[in-house]
Amino acid sequence: MNKLYPDAAAALDGLLHDGMTICAGGFGLCGIPERLIDAIQAAGTKDLTIASNNAGIDGEGLGKLLRTRQVKKMISSYVGENKEFERQYLSGELAVEFCPQGTLAERCRAGGAGIPGFYTKTGVGTLIAEGKEVKSFDGEDYILERGIRADLSIIKGWKADESGNLIFRKTARNFNQPMATAGRICVAEVEEVVPVGSLDPDAIHLPGIYVKRMIVGAPYDKKIEFRTVRERAAA
Which of 73, 88, 92 is nearest to 150 (CA)? Predict the structure, then answer.
């Protein structure tokens, strides 16, 4: 089975529809599936529910889909540096389900493992717990969190072989691995594809069974999410 497609539009062909749920890997601008996000923007798919740690920054990453009003709801950990995300949320234009970072990762991991829900202490006694089932274990309260299943997962990898076995690079591993397993279909963009057998089996982070389609997205421009400049020393 040939999993490699010529470009992002071809890899997403037949998978996009209005009102769908998408799990998107990455953290800020690190490890985000840039080419696949651009293809979704170009396709004009709307009323999207997107589960992602955050929504990039203004005009970059998932921020592009916010700017074009293609997103109906975000399931995220924080607004971050995205002012448009903040503006749409505060004005009531965008539904947002805030979720603690570790809980979000576990909800996606659980969904991918076929676990419909789990109990956690994170959020007990806070707004996060409102409307959720509370259960006591050994005298401690826990809240029920539901696993997340998506119609589509879009992720960014570093290197993959032709069968889809994939390696993430350093911190870009972040949310990509749990997001990959939570979707019914996973499409990955990677920087390099190598022949089967080239990768050390012990180094593979995501088995190819999870990856249905791939593209090579390189080369990439490294974008800076938040630039800090030290003041010039006095002469």
Answer: 73
d(CA 48, CA 59): 17
pLDDT digits 0-9 by tens, 163-182: 999 999 998 888 999 999 99
pLDDT at 235: 67
How many other C-beta atoms are found inside a 10 Å radius of the C-beta of residue 41? 15
pLDDT at 29: 86
d(CA 128, CA 102): 13
Task: Say if residues 193 and 63 touch (Cβ distance below 8 Å).
Answer: no
Helices (H), the chain: 8-12, 34-43, 63-67, 83-90, 101-112, 176-182
Buried b (16+ CB within 10 A) or exposed e, 70-105: bbeebbbbebbbbebbbebbeeeebebeebbbebbb
**Pairing outcome for strands 192-194 and 186-190:** unpaired
Interval 117-142: pLDDT, tens: 999 999 999 999 999 999 999 999 99
Residues 107, 163: Cα–Cα separation, whole Å: 27
Strand partners for 194: 161
pTM: 0.91
Instruction: Looking at 13-129, list the stretches that DSSP marks H as alpha helix, in order from N- to C-terminal side.
Output: 34-43, 63-67, 83-90, 101-112
